Model the fold of this input.
Amino acid sequence: MKEKNAVFTSRIVPYIYLSPTLIILIVFLFYPAWKSIILSMYRSNLFLGTRKFIGLENLKSLFTGPLAPGFLQVLAQTVIFSILVVALSLFISLFLAVQASKDIRGARIYRVLLIWPFALSPAIAATIALFMFNPEVGIVNALTGLSIRWLDSPVPTFFLTVGIAVWKNLGYSIVFYLAALQSLPKSPLEAANIDGATMMQRFWLVTYPLLSPTTFFLLFTNLIYSFFDSFAIIDMLTRGGPVGPGPLLDNEGITTTLMYKVYLDGFGGSSNMGFAAAEGVVLMVLVGIAALFQFRFLAKRVHYEG
Done:
């Protein structure tokens, strides 16, 4: 008996199925984004309750005037921070996943130990780092014999923050790479082995292209993590500081990212919600550009065939 094609008999049925997702997107994504765009056109103080329409003046102030150097520094720091976090996360997690996928004694224990940092909240991960890298009683300086003040010097603080952000999210990427490695088709690897390909050639010419869908997915999720989910790590570890060396890095704290600056300007001393909303709009545009670049150019390198 010929199987009947599954089609919707009414135009409204697909929207009924989609309604839970659409409601969540509208309430928690589209509506807040729209309100942020509207708020960016006002000079608004959260605590005083004042609000005045000023058009695009907030956006203009981000790139011109006395506040522009600090914002441009934060924008550059955000891009550098995100690139480092994403690149290191993908490279290290892939390397560890390949090692953990090998059939060795105690492999399950190693996999659990590699994944468990992801179960920690960002605040707990930052608190652990605070104790470990404390210059007086921290275990890092005690074991290495160094006397580095990790959270007082701008350059060590920046790279320490990057390292903690990478370590916190490694488990997430490792899980996906492990699952992808264990589900790879055997025939291409066996054919490459018969053809005399070396281990590195088999990895880069066969295994890595087959992992491209997973890498494509993790690239975007790690990018979102670096933009938004690293907020708690920065807040607990450095609170955006310390101020970097001049003249280019002395306007804001060296670990202040765009997301953290939105928080400081919106809920800090000035409580300028309109200015913070304008920074949020720039952050949305930045994420949109990154997503467009990924889906427009990098998607062509993804291979779904086995």
Notes: The CA atoms of residues 105 and 111 lie 12 Å apart. The chain has a mean pLDDT of 88. The longest strand covers residues 42-44.
